Structures are given as structure tokens and as C-alpha cells.
Structure of ABC transporter permease subunit:
Amino acid sequence: MELKKRLVSGTPGRLLVTLIMLALAIVMIMPFLWMISTSLKTPTEVFKYPIEWIPAHPTWEHHLKVWSGPKSFGTYYLNSLKIAFIGMVGATFLSAFAAYGFARVEFKGRNALFMLYLSMMMIPPQVLFVPKFIMFEWAGIYNTHWSLILPGMFTIFGVFMLRQFFLSIPHEISESAFIDGAGHFRIFFRLILPLAKPALATLAIIDFSWQWNDYENALVFLIDERLYTIPLGLQNFILENTVDYNGMMAAASAGIIPMIVVFAIGQRYIIQGLTNSAVKG
């Protein structure tokens, strides 16, 4: 009876919160819907008031222009997919390796070293552009995709998130494996990684989105237009078509589609991984 009273008394509050969240969701999704709608309109319909959310005569002309023009988005897509996929795989594996060391391997000064490692997050990435430029020139990878892929494989956030998840795994599992004669490598690959699938999937999705949307590093370290990624290609398209609002929205729609697909596929892993990573700090 007491539980029933609590549920009844809490219903108005939950309903209010739900309505507020629904309103915020609508506000946040409206620019995206306007972008899709504008990409299917004719130029004369762009500034029509009141806004016509569903075009009377939708046209795919602007989308065809984006994909079949002299500077097709196909090249930019392939470049971005290459950089984002390789960087995501490398970042996920290396972060898991480092996180295991900070969470499961006992050594002197481990916590102090981890705090020092975390403090690097306070350094603005723009400060590192000049040192990176000098290093990439010396290594011969400036103006190549490797200048984006290699730095992208090291993520402090990924190490932190996976370490928190590994700490939530009972130590008895590792201790039993040690008793049976297993070493750290065998425990890492045979026990920890299979249990950490939600966290690994979460990091992979987040890192993929970071790599896909990276504009600053691509702008600084890529010169050859054939190596351009989606953010640079989109910026070039906007600069060359300053009054083609329909084409701009079509190009923006093309650039955001992979992010929607990736999130739609992995949203349950993101929620589960972030929840589990916050269990123990």
C-alpha cells in the first residue's frame, strides 16, 4: 500500500519531467529536421514563411550535386572512413591495454602516474599543433592520413573510462586465474576483454565520432585536397557555394548520416558502457 501511494504521488512529477524532456528533445531535433527539409526544397522555398517542413515538390537535385559534382563527397567519405576506422580500432585496443595496467597491475606509484596521465587532459590540444607539426615533418608523415591516425590512437578519456570499468570487475576472477597459472596477457585477452564488451563498444563509437568530426587537425596537417576528410570537404563546399543554401544542407546531411547510423546501432552499448564505467571510481 505504501509503495502504491509513492507511485501515485510521484506520477505528476514524473509526467512533468517527461514533458520537459520531450520539449527539449523537439527543440534539439528541429535544426536537423530543418536541414533535411531544406536540402529537398527549391531555392525559392528556403526562406518561405511560415516554414514549410514538408516540401510540396521535393527535389534530389542538390543531393546529386553533392555526390556527382567535380568535387564529389565520395572521396571525402572514403578518407574519413579510413581515418576514423583505423584510429578507432587502435584507440580501443591501446586504451584497453593501458587501462588494464592501471586497474589490475600492481606497481609502485601507479595511482600517482595515473593522476599525472589524467592531468594531460587539461592541456589545450591547440597548444600541441606546433610540436606535432615539427614531429610529423621529421617523421615524414605530414600531409598524410597517418598524421591524423597515429595521434588519434591515444586517448586519455578512453583509458580513464576503461579503467573505471575494469575496476568494477571482481578481483576474484583475476585471482582465480592467477592460481590456475594464467599470466596478465592471458587474463587480459581471455577474461577481461570479453567481460568489457559494452565498455569497448562504447569507446569505439565515441572515438569513431571524434575522428569523423575532427576538423582542426585535418585543417592543420592535410594540404592535398585528395586527402581531405568530410569536415574539410564540407567547409570547402560551403565556401564555394556561399548562396546555395540547399546544397549546403544537402552536404551537411551527407556528412551526418554515418553518425546517425553508428549511434542507432550502438546506443544501447553507450548507455550500458557509461553506466558500468561509473560504478566504481
In short: Residues 13 and 19 are 10 Å apart (CA to CA). The radius of gyration is 24 Å.
